Amino acid sequence: MTAMNTQTPFVPGRLEQMSTRIAFFIAGFGIAAWAPLVPYAKARAGLDDATLGLLLLCLGAGSILAMPISGVLATRYGCRRVFSAGTLLICLALPLLATVSSVPFLIATLFLFGAGLGAVDSTVNLQAVIVERASGRTMMSGFHGLFSVGGIAGAAGVSALLALGLTPLWAIMVVIVLILAALIKAAPHLLPYGSESNGPAFAVPHGVVLFIGLLCFVVFLAEGSMLDWSAVFLTADKQIDEAYAGLGYAAFALTMTVGRLLGDTIVSRLGARRVIVLGGLFAAAGLVLATLAASWQVALVGYGLVGIGCSNIVPVLYTAVGKQTLMPMSIAVPAITTLGYAGILAGPAAIGFIAHASSLSTAFLLIATLLVAVAISGRILRV
């Protein structure tokens, strides 16, 4: 009898599907709650853009280190335990992010927060793969749509609480209560097992897999810039009040969610190649508009265009990985996932250094140029 046979006493059904959706909501809600806190943390610790970028690198390092470790732990102890532990790490780190002013403590807290996010993100995707396979039908877009719904609720909700006059700490305490309530609802039907490892946790990609991974890196870099830098940009360049700065990420997350929920229909009508081309151009145009617009209201429209453009590029790229024969799927998929998350988690740190050397506007325009390159790639990539 194999390890999998002893660890899979039942086939996931509707209750496991529901818990998977709640888990994706928790993941999106938890990470987005950080976005409105960035300007407060920056001001409280007296950081410039370059130093903030270095600190955000600690968040990315914690996440990327936790991802492969979480996969191993989930295989041994089950998705339920690892996801719950990651969620509790997030709940522990968020109040500290709302209050800590010491740079060393902020570094440690961001690393802890990143580790929690990495554990949650890695485990919820493993749960989703198992549940989707058991269902016999495509469900991944819907799962990720709930992540986006959580992102909207986290960014807009914290911004609303701050606008009502709550301190960052009290706003985050409300977030923690909601996260724990959702975890209590989801935990009984999160999977008590993981899956067998079919390959290394990380493999160096090459050829078309490396090319696809780099495209994922750019798209996730654009998403990461919305999470970590949109609020800073709106307050510094558009003079929006700090309490409303999270609206930039909320606008991005809203259109991203709509795009993901309609993604299957969009791809079937336009074709995968056009989705990459048009998506890259829409996202690039949105970043240019948000950066060069005179008012913050127009900038919000630009951030919305970025969400529309980015929403379906990565799913199409994952489909392209499935068609390539250069590397086995069990190696290719983890490889491009690692590159992608490097973009969303570690990439924004580079934006801080570029902003320090020139300006945050220059950094955003550079990302727009990279998104145009993604659009061009859609015409040559076999999808």
What this model shows, in words?
- This protein is mainly α and 383 residues long.
- It folds into 2 domains: 186 residues, Growth Hormone, Chain: A (Up-down Bundle), CATH 1.20.1250; 185 residues, MFS general substrate transporter like domains (Growth Hormone, Chain: A, Up-down Bundle), CATH 1.20.1250.
- 79% of the residues lie in helices and 0% in strands.
- Helix 2 packs antiparallel against helix 8, helix 9 packs antiparallel against helix 10 and helix 10 packs parallel to helix 13.
- It is globular, with a radius of gyration of 20 Å.
- 56% of the residues are buried.
- The N terminus is likely disordered.
Throw out a few tags for this protein:
Growth Hormone, Chain: A, 16 helices, disordered N terminus, 0% strand, 383 residues, mainly alpha, single chain, transmembrane, MFS_trans_sf
Task: Please outline what is shown here.
The chain crosses the membrane at residues 22-41, 53-75, 82-100, 106-131, 143-164, 170-191, 203-223, 243-263, 275-294, 300-321, 333-354, 360-381. The protein is mostly helical and 383 residues long.
What's the total count of β strands? 0
* Element pattern in H and E: HHHHHHHHHHHHHHHH
What percentage of amino acids are in beta strands? Answer: under 5%
CA-atom Rg in angstroms: 20 Å
> What distance lies between the first and last C-alpha atoms, to the nearest angstrom?
40 Å
Mean pLDDT: 84
CATH architecture of the largest domain: Up-down Bundle
How would you sum up the major sheet?
none
How much helicity do the residues have?
A: over 70%
* Structural class based on helices, strands and sheet pairing: mainly alpha
What is the class of the largest domain in the CATH system?
Mainly Alpha
Low-pLDDT residue intervals, each spanning 5 or more residues: 1-9
Query: So how many helices?
Result: 16
State the CATH topology of the largest domain.
Growth Hormone, Chain: A
- Oligomer type: single chain
- CATH homologous superfamily designation of the largest domain: MFS general substrate transporter like domains
Shape: globular
- Overall number of domains: 2
Main location: membrane
GO molecular function: transmembrane transporter activity
GO cellular component, one term: membrane
Protein name: MFS transporter
